[in-house]
Amino acid sequence: MLSGLDVSVFQGQMDFSSYDFVIIKASEGWAYQDEGMNRHVQSALSTNTPFGFYHYARPDLGNSPQTEADSFLSYVQPYIGQAVFALDWEQKSLNYPASWALEWCSYVKQKTGTTPFIYIQASVENNGSMRSLYQGGFPLWIAQWEVSQPQVETWDKWTLWQYQGSPLDLDYFDGTIDDWNTWAGGGSVQPLEWVTGNRYLSSSEMQNNAKIVYQYFNKQGWTLNAVAGMLGNMQRESTINPGIWESLQPYIPGGGYGLVGWTPYTRITEWLTSHGYAIDDGNGQLAKIQEEWLDPSVEVVWIETSTYPISFNEFVTSTESPEFLASVFLYNYERAGVAAESERRENARYWYDYLLANGGGSVFVPRLNSDGMEGNPYWYDYNPFYLAGYGLPNCTAYCWGRWYEIQGVYPELPLGNANTWWNDAQNMGKKTGQTPQLGAIIVTWYSDGGHVAVVEQINSDGSIVTSNSGWGSSYFWTETLYPENGYLASWVPSEAYVQGFIYLDISPVGPGPVPDRPTFGKASKGKASKYGNLWLTLRGVKQ
User: Fold this and answer.
1) Which residues pair with 410 in a beta bridge?
2) Is the four-CA dihedral 152, 157, 160, 164 of positive or negative sign?
3) What is the set of domains in the chain, with CATH numbers?
4) Each residue of 341-378: pLDDT tens digit?
């Protein structure tokens, strides 16, 4: 039996050399890393103390198990295979079904090969509510103090036992160092890998490849709508398989090959070979599509039709329906011998709904610095504030671009001063409220323009970290706001108050395509706020 402890930010610098193991708090909820994690890891490494990590579940914040698991894995990824994992299930979590915890543990095991422990109080273990975790093979970390042995009713036995809670949380591990290392054993978080081969793919295999396609083009600024429209065509052409030959007949003269059925096949195979890719490399084929979009001088592939007089760039940035964009891609790009248009449109709707529900495998990534913002089309060429002459630094231009970055779809947001956003957002049908959520826009009113910012992190003490830009001020900064102050920044005028939060909504914006260069009216008269922007009047643009 080994003796150890579990720690979090509330423990300062510690020497773990007198302990057999230490379990370190890594994260809580979504996008919050425990501030003590890194120093505790370094202490454990410096003393060769076996260690593990636990995640404090926060289903009460509305987070999905996968979302919180991905957040946890992003912090512990360098130590996968040498650390044990655990889910801390207590307090507010007890108001939620055990299926949430089971899904979290199952997902972490699937992604890493490491089987997480489940931390629960003895009373919770005894009442049988977590039986599904026991049946799933997840070991028990039980908390019961001031007893000679914990009382176990649901599990056959405990593997970790927290037997003391003050002044330190002390634990026993029922096993040897070899047993500990067995529980820690695993591989690494594996990125999605292409499913390929000269065959038709199953539904689950297509879903895997569709996520890769979405992740690739989302980073390039494509809307979800556009990706779904293209995927509807890819499904018809190849079952989203980069290694498939037309009619499963390789090297037939004039035959097609690859994700979009390039015809003749030499168009794609020769390009891939010349650029150092294997011919069934899906990433190489996506790079070819990217080149076709950005550098048509190499090969003119996109040809506007009279029915769909839409450029490739307009397609990429469009918020039209997936069905409409499937037709655009069919006639302006594929020009297929067999149109099967209704099938492609139905496929596109399916992929839109699937990726919307599953996030394309993506995770909310907090923006805590300005890396990658300069010249990024979210804040520049695609941004209506920039196009109207009110680009960064500017709080409204920043929030518009940040929502585009998070969602991957053209945002429907107000276009006026920050102090008009609250009422305008409600009039637009946006969801609003008084509770912070990740990605939400916090709206502060004051007469001289107001201010808007994006919630990037929610801390365990209720404080939030926001990302900001300011008219006549800084290009980018972060700021911690506290609930006891009503989430009000210290620098705002005395008349200022927080109106609330505008919540993310990644549903389609509307039926009309977004022009590359919308036409704006003149700014109204009035002084520009240091942190807001002048009023913009949008004319003739479908939002």
Assistant:
1) none
2) positive
3) 2-184 (3.20.20.80), 203-361 (1.10.530.10), 390-502 (3.90.1720.10)
4) 999 999 999 998 778 655 444 446 788 888 888 888 88
